[in-house]
Design a protein that fits this description.
hydrolase activity, acting on ester bonds, 5_nucleotidase/apyrase, 201 residues, alpha/beta, nucleotide binding, single chain, metal ion binding, four-stranded mixed β-sheet, Purple Acid Phosphatase, chain A, domain 2
């Protein structure tokens, strides 16, 4: 399965150029022109998606031909998730005996709560961000109840050896302990990995 885990629209001269130029209705951001040629199942947002503001982000995402999920960003006005929290997709697979099967794969996405600090000017008064692990504990059972055979977490988050605490930036280890989670896509782990002392003992 091919998924996007964010930090696409910022971080390059092209990203800065497109943000300065702006996106009109119907424009497709170059990064999505590229990704749309591939068979992405779903995408999640990274912290850098918010560097240019929510309006620009929504305009950019409109050009993606695959869905985006995020469960822990909350719209201040509605008190509901700003994006679709999760998605369950029927996926055709071949089992070990060579027979076709259909799996219902659930995808759920998260961003670090620290975006409220890093992009305060763009987000304050518009959204809030909930704890990653607690949000997973809320939604994963719901995904199972709705028929997900497999639950895949796409977290724009890394690993930490720190004891669990609410609103942690790097929550992937603790996400792996949430009942019902089968797989984690992680981010924010630059360099060689695994590294010593990245996991709690």
């Amino acid at each position: 399965m091919l998924v996007d885990n964010g930090d696409l629209i910022q971080g390059s001269p092209l990203g800065d150029y497109m943000a300065a130029k702006g996106l009109k209705d119907g424009d497709i951001h170059p990064v999505y022109k590229a990704l749309n040629t591939l068979d992405y199942a779903v995408g999640n947002l990274g912290n850098h998606e918010f560097n240019y503001g929510l309006d620009y982000l929504h305009n950019a995402l409109a050009g993606a031909k695959f869905p985006y999920v995020n469960a822990n960003i909350i719209d201040v006005k509605t008190q509901k998730p700003l994006f679709t929290p999760y998605l369950i997709k029927e996926t055709s697979v071949i089992d070990k005996d060579g027979n076709p099967q259909t799996l219902k794969i659930g995808y759920i996405g998260f961003v670090p709560p620290q975006i409220m600090i890093w992009d305060k000017a763009n987000l304050s008064g518009k959204v809030t961000v909930n704890d990653i692990t607690e949000t997973a504990r809320k939604y994963v059972p719901e995904m199972r109840e709705k028929g997900a055979d497999i639950v895949v977490v796409i977290a724009h988050s890394g690993l930490s050896a720190d004891p669990y605490h609410s609103m942690a930036e790097n929550s992937v280890y603790y996400l792996s302990e949430v009942p019902g989670v089968d797989a984690n896509y992680l981010s924010e782990v630059p360099g060689v990995w695994p590294r010593p002392r990245r996991l709690p003992r």
